[in-house]
Design goal:
single chain; mainly alpha; Ammonium transporter fold; two-stranded antiparallel sheet; globular; Ammonium/urea_transptr; Ammonium_transpt; transmembrane helix
């Protein structure tokens, strides 16, 4: 018995697509994105002195926006695309319409959903690094740091561990919650950057032992 014409699989509803999985993946990704914007944007603008509030908030906001551009431009394919070398994928754009509707490398969902899901985690990783640099880094330097670190650090760990073709993945390394790719890499990067940037902490002559009164959160008036 054949199905009615309106129930036959097509490009909008291919036979491999699980609408429940796809819906939850999109919901989970959106919740993670909300941790970054507006979550960490507000937090970072609230825990520093008033003179640093705008700079700190914009460090988080810029990281989120810049990672999106880099991610669809080359970052996703370097993290989850075709193998280039054993720890990195081939750089390529992820905006081709046919590519976006194809099944992702994992799960019953399209590449478009996986790109979005992985983007919010890449973005929050950079924003976590920013938390160690509040009041320590010039905004222009941060604008250069974000795409460079995403390209030459995050993509390598993501491909090595999360991509099925990655060398650590093939050795059986499993990272379900991002403990290595997100938290360890952002922690090491943040610690290193804060250490080397410690001489710049005192823009106004303060040292790290001085208690700095924080700026109230924007909603606390």
């Amino acid at each position: 018995m054949s199905l009615p014409s309106n129930l036959n699989p097509d490009e909008a509803s291919p036979p491999w697509l699980n609408k429940g999985d796809n819906s939850w993946q999109l919901t989970a990704a959106t919740l993670v994105g909300l941790q970054s914007v507006p979550g960490l944007v507000i937090l970072y603008g609230s825990i520093v002195k008033k003179k640093w509030a705008v700079n700190s908030a914009f460090m988080a906001l810029y990281a989120f926006a810049a990672v999106l551009v880099c991610w669809v431009g080359w970052g996703y394919r370097m993290s989850f695309g075709d193998k280039f070398i054993h720890f990195l994928g081939m750089p390529n754009v992820s905006l081709d319409a046919q590519y976006l509707i194809e099944q992702a490398f994992l799960g019953y969902l399209p590449n478009a959903t996986m790109i979005y899901f992985q983007f919010v985690f890449a973005a929050i990783t950079l924003i976590l690094v920013a938390g160690a640099l509040l009041g320590r880094m010039n905004f222009l330097a941060w604008m250069l740091f974000v795409p460079l670190w995403l390209t030459f650090s995050y993509t390598i760990t993501a491909y090595s561990i999360w991509c099925p073709e990655g060398w650590l993945s093939k050795k059986g390394i499993i990272d379900y919650s991002g403990g290595y790719v997100i938290h360890l890499s952002s922690g090491v990067a943040g610690f290193t950057a804060a250490y080397w940037g410690q001489d710049y902490f005192g823009w106004d002559g303060l040292v790290s032992t001085v208690v700095i009164p924080i700026q109230s959160a924007p909603m606390h008036r």
